[in-house]
């Protein structure tokens, strides 16, 4: 269903000759060229800095260094507070590549921009439901027991809100009558739980690990675990590398090498259970950001299942599961642009070029 795409030659010629705008050509102005003709810098815009959910990207540091040497380029990872901002950076031309959430990038692709989601980094919502410790004995992990309580998430429409709503509705709760609070940034989760402002919140894994380590909360549901969340929300496509089609066409070998690096990084981390062993695989910046080993051990335990259910590719069913929870119209998802967005061909080629056996992933589980 998702063939490799090529922008028609007349369109490329028109874009090159007329120096058309970003939204018309699917990319910003051509970046400065290095000695090999590749961009002098390949900026991979990402949400946050050294986020554990993106471990395959960080674990690919040796391969990224080889790419820098091969092409005479520099690879950087500008971090942004929100995924939307990372996507905007790529669309605006200040970044070449985006480590973006699937639905966020697909929405942009459906609007105007010619984009391709070329390798999946994680599956699942990337969140953990954590409840205040005062409820642990009485309610445990029974989400239905929180009916009538106060529910926290980052913002309306966020994956934090969506995954919390799905969990509540799966437990038979009428979400429309619940007391919900958008706490804002991820740093507000632990204080909101500690102060009693919320009874239960759907947090990022780092906040969840910190809340538990501090004795403020306890885990109720890990959306990264397909065996648990699959029956609730299906198999959700998380973040992945998104490239403008213009970049794919201008730098096909570089694009393939970037995907090869991420596939290698994924294989490097997916079977690691020991958090100390995982840290040893990571670049210095990641290790410094995770200096609190007890907290990271919890964080890794929450995160690792997100890699067991992916080999870097994405299926038709996962496309349907993921877009079912996005703001898409029926006509949008059946459009040619939707069909062109998901491209598994570079992942398929990566396993061939690298000579790696394709890992056995967790079976899909749908609601």
Automatic annotation (TrEMBL):
Belongs to the bacterial solute-binding protein SsuA/TauA family. Residues 1-26 form the signal peptide. Pfam families: NMT1_2 (PF13379). It is found in: Periplasm. Keywords: Signal. GO terms for biological process: alkanesulfonate transmembrane transport. This is NMT1/THI5 like protein. The keyword Signal applies. Residues 317-328 have a biased composition (Basic and acidic residues). GO terms for cellular component: periplasmic space.
